[in-house]
Amino acid sequence: MSANSFGHLFRYTTFGESHGPAIGCVVDGVPPRLELSADDIQVYLDKRRPGQSRHTSQRQEADRVEILSGVFGGQTTGAPVGLLIVNQDSRSKDYDAIKDIFRPGHADYTYMQKYGIRDWRGGGRSSARETAMRVAAGVIARKVLGGDIKVRGALVQMGPHAVDRERWDWAETANNPFWCPDATAAAEWEGFLDGVRKAGVSTGAVVEVVASGVPAGLGAPVYDKLDADIAKALMGIPAVKGVEIGAGFGAAQLSGPENSDAMRMKGGRVTFVGNNAGGILGGISTGQDIVARFAVKPTSSVSVAQPTVNTRGEDVEIATLGRHDPCVGIRAVPVGEAMLAIVLADHLLRHKAQCGE
Q1: 209: which of 82, 244, 285, 333 is 20 to 30 A away, CA to CA?
Q2: What is the reported pTM?
Q3: Best CA proximity match to 293, nearest among 127, 144, 163, 131
Q4: Rounded-to-10 torsion of CA 218, 222, 225, 227
Q5: What is the per-residue burial (b if ≥16 Cβ within 10 Å, else e) of 119-152?
Q6: In angstroms, rounded to a whole number, what is the distance separating the alpha carbons of residues 324 and 311?
Q7: Are 308 and 318 in contact (CB under 8 A)?
């Protein structure tokens, strides 16, 4: 299996399966003398791990990370940083009854078509379990970016229910289980998601990630545009089916003057009246906030019976047992943050290599 790595100068490679003994990653291109400990990484892994509320998968994984290499005396050495998380609560028996059945909406069929073999225990390599290592790599990326660049994420829509941006409060994301910046919406989502779960189905979501303090000049046009790399990073998250930057698809409804972010001088500096571009023009950062959103499809594993086929080519029905998120978008928030940080760290190092700044 190819393509298990992401990035250029800042590059990480993940390994492991959902129900294997462990998952891990190797992060290459990490500058030396960055302060780094397992506790630094654990803070962000705890945001993603399952079993923290009734609204997520009840799989009980501590997700305790171990640093295997690349750190000495609390600092990175410049060598590859190896990270490992041991799987503790995999229950492969939950999948015994459906090991010969292709789950609708999953990668079972496509993996079999491509490789002629698949790990049916929780999806194996295609499982979102792998994203824990993206979050871990994202912590190192934040270290590369430094304290002046802040990357944050929020759930802005669950099913048909969106937040009211007039009530947006970043601090509120830490006060509810949804990473929702709107306290009123978060309260409404509680009842909505309880109903979804009791019905044995699932719902989708939209996540917004924002990077503040990004300097102007990051990006490598023509083929490595900053927004193109961000889109690839977010689109590569399991269950993501759409990505937009800034105004995104909404820009199609605007006129040219409405969409263009007017520019003025203020205090001897160029400023922008709006940010429909999402902080990126011509594939290069403008110095404004970088804003991206991604749509996460409803969890495909549901207890309601669905028509499908088995490996013998027979029409059957399937109701998926096991422990699954009624809205996988909730735990996608820290993953989206990590992927945005990783792209920015990579482009920051590339910018310094070319421009010496």
Answers
A1: 82
A2: 0.95
A3: 163
A4: 130
A5: bbbbbbbbbbbbbbbbbbbbbbbbbbbeeebebb
A6: 23
A7: yes
The single residue listed with the structure tokens 């941006």 is: 165
Q: Is the pLDDT of residue 61 over 90?
A: no
CB-facing half-sphere around the CA of 3: CA atoms within 13 A: 3
Packing angle, helices 38-48 and 131-145, rounded to 10: 130
- Cα(319)–Cα(104) distance, integer angstroms: 10
Burial-class residue 317 by CB neighbours within 10 Å (0-12, 13-18, 19+): exposed
Backbone φ and ψ of 184, nearest 5°: -65, -45
Residue 98 has pLDDT above 90, yes or no: no
Q: What percent of the chain has pLDDT over 70?
A: 94
Indicate the pairing of strand 75-76 with strand 150-158: unpaired
Cβ atoms of 278 and 227 within 8 Å: the answer is yes
Tell me the two tokens of residue 281. 């023009």
Q: How far is CA 173 from CA 28, 148, 218, 244, 262, in A?
A: 32, 21, 28, 21, 31
Q: Is the peptide bond before 222 cis (omega within 30 degrees of 0)?
A: yes
Mention every residue, 6+ apart, whose C-beta is less than 8 A from residue 198: none
Q: Which H or E run includes 72?
A: strand 71-72
The span from the CA of 206 to the CA of 162, in Å, is 9
pLDDT, one tens digit per residue, over 262-272 is 999 999 999 99
Structure tokens at 342: 């990783």
CB atoms within 10 A of CB 353: 10
The separation between CA 298 and the C-alpha centre of its own chain, rounded to angstroms, equals 15
Mean pLDDT of all residues belonging to the chain: 93
Question: Is residue 302 exposed (0-12), middle (13-18) or buried (19+ Cβ within 10 Å)?
Answer: buried
Instruction: Give the span between the Cα atoms of 150 and 340, in whole angstroms.
Output: 11
Contact 27, 80 (CB under 8 A): yes
